[in-house]
Write the C-alpha cells for this entry.
Amino acid sequence: MRTRSLGIGVLALAMAFAVTACTSVDGPTVRQDTVTLPTPLRSLDVSADTTVAALSAALGTIGERLVEPPGPYRPSEPPSVMQLPRVIRRAELADVGDGFVVIYEAPSRADAERLAGELADYLGSGFGMTNYVVDTQFAVSVLDDTIIFTTWSARSSDDPDRARAAFEAMAAVGEPLAVTK
C-alpha cells in the first residue's frame, strides 16, 4: 500500500512539473507588433476616428505628427476602464517613451464622462501615481464618447520642451477634467 501511495505521489509531482514547464511565468505571450491591448479596435469607429483626427490636427499646429507606436503600451488605469476598447497613438518625438495618448471608446457620452472622472480620480490617488515618476503631469478629457488620456514628465524626457508642447497640444483636445494630486 505504501509503495502504491508513493507511486501516485511521484506521478502527481511529475504531472505538476510538466504543467509548470509548459506554462509561461510571464503570462500570455503578446506579439510585439500589437499596439492596442487588451481590447483593440480593429478598425476605428466614427468617434475614435474623429478623436484621432482632432489630436492629429492639434499636434500639426506645433509641427508634430501623431503616429502608431512601435510596440505595445499600457498605462496605469483603474479597473473601470481596463476593458474598454482603445486606440494607442503617440506624438512622433525623439524619445520613444514620450508622447503616448490613449483613446478609450466608451458606450456613450454619459459613460465617457463618468469613466473619465474615475480615471482622473485614480490618477490623483496615491495608488494611481505609483506607476509614474514624481513630476508626471496627467491630462484626461472627453470628446464625444471617447476619453483621451496622456502624460508628460520633464524628468523622463530626452527633449522636455518638445514633449511638453506635444502634451499641451493633446491635452487641449476635448473637455478637460482636473487630475488633482
